[in-house]
Amino acid sequence: MLSERRLRVLRAIVQDYVGTEEPVGSKALTERHSLGVSPATVRNDMAALEDEGYIAQPHTSAGRIPTDKGYRLFVDKLAGVKPMTAPERRAIQNFLDGAVDLDDVVARTVRLLAQLTRQVAVVQYPSLTRSTVRHVELLALAPARLMLVLITDTGRVEQRMVDAPAPFGEASLADLRARLNSRVAGRRFSDVPRLVEDLPEAFDIEDRGTVTTVLSTLLETLVEENEERLMIGGTANLTRFGHDFPLTIRPVLEALEEQVVLLKLLGEAGDSGMTVRIGHENAYEGLNSTSVVSVGYGSGGEAVAKLGVVGPTRMDYPGTMGAVRAVARYVGQILAES
Question: What is the C-alpha to C-alpha distance for residues 303 and 229, in angstroms, rounded to an integer?
Answer without folding.
Answer: 15
